[in-house]
Amino acid sequence: TRTPVNVTITGAAGQIGYALLFRIASGHLLGADVPVNLRLLEIPQGLKAAEGTAMELVDCAFPLLRDITITDKPAEAFDGANVALLVGARPRTAGMERGDLLQANGGIFGPQGKAINEHAADDIKVLVVGNPANTNALIAQRNAPDVPAERFTAMTRLDHNRAVGQLSLKTGALVSDIKRVTIWGNHSATQYPDIFQAEIAGKPAFEAIGSDQAWLENDFVPTVAKRGAAIIEARGASSAASAANAAIDHVYTWVNGTAEGDWTSMGVVSDGSYGVPAGLISSFPVTTKDGEFSIVQGLEISDFSRGRINASVQELTEERDAVQELGLI
Ligand code: NAI
């Protein structure tokens, strides 16, 4: 039998945590034959709720679930971690400036990065979900100098899946027939969902949407980029099950590989590809194989796409400069 994989989840008592833990324990994160130990990190106020969720996990009698640890100490939560899902973050509240938001999150992701650096397993893979995800991932990564930078990733898979969902609605094509969609840049309203490399049921995606540039610019791009706000408006709470699903997809794809002829979108440390300044954590088209990803090279970027990518990367640069000024990285 296989040795269990240690999976750390921060913010485990939150709404994404609640949608995430049961699927991890039932084998959707890593595979149906991989046992897992869960390490739940919460702040003191969240411990009791995390314990309640752990009781329910026991009540599911999942064959793959080995043990569950619940703690408010990062050193304990990340001890021997193979996979870490950093979900807990400080949300923006009314009247909060960007600097305050980054400062508060620096106080979370800096210490967590340090704890990962000191305590995680050598093969640690980190996914940051908590917003601002790209910059929180950058803060954690810079605080973990002994861990290879490419092990720190930020989640844009929800945006990717949202784009695929919208294309399926528009064209009537099956989700499984939609390939090579890309999210570029920041997980924010400036992100750019790019269909110019994509294929829908064997045709270029742009053709499949009736070469409708107006729909693309005025409907598709803003719908994907502002979907989070639309969900809050409709549901009265932010995306939780879809966010948890995307986190599962992100890690599953990272570990188990992308399909031949397809790719996914991940926020990863730039190597300077496509003019994105090296070191920024920005979303790119990536293929994955044997637990490693590579940024897809050599794509032709139109002027339209270039403008959109640059605008989102500019925002990431400003966020990085702000956390640098605050001494967080
Ligand atoms: P939530 O507020 O329901 O849960 C957050 C949990 O994190 C709470 O239980 C809180 O006690 C805990 N927490 C706070 N600070 C912590 C710390 N230092 N260590 C451990 N736990 C801590 O929030 P929800 O809905 O689960 O969302 C979590 C984050 O995910 C938010 O930042 C949200 O903006 C982000 N998000 C990101 C998405 C993406 O696509 N990248 C999509 C949807 C949400």
Protein architecture, described:
This protein is α/β, with parallel strands linked by helices. It has two domains: 5-154, 3-Layer(aba) Sandwich (Rossmann fold); 157-319, Lactate dehydrogenase/glycoside hydrolase, family 4, C-terminal (L-2-Hydroxyisocaproate Dehydrogenase, Chain A, domain 2, Alpha-Beta Complex), CATH 3.90.110. 43% of the residues lie in helices and 19% in strands. It has helices spanning 15-25, 47-60, 74-77, 98-119, 133-142, 157-171, 205-208, 213-225, 227-235, 241-256, 303-325; strands spanning 5-10, 36-41, 65-71, 83-86, 125-128, 152-154, 178-179, 182-184, 192-194, 199-200, 203-204, 264-269, 281-289, 292-295. The strands form four sheets. It has a six-stranded parallel β-sheet with strand order 3-2-1-4-5-6. The chain has a three-stranded antiparallel β-sheet with strand order 7-10-11. α1 links the parallel β1 (5-10) and β2 (36-41). It is globular and about 50 Å long. 1,4-dihydronicotinamide adenine dinucleotide is lined by residues 10-11, 13-17, 41-43, 46, 87-89, 91, 108, 129-131, 133, 155, 158, 187, 238-240, 243. 1,4-dihydronicotinamide adenine dinucleotide binds next to α1.
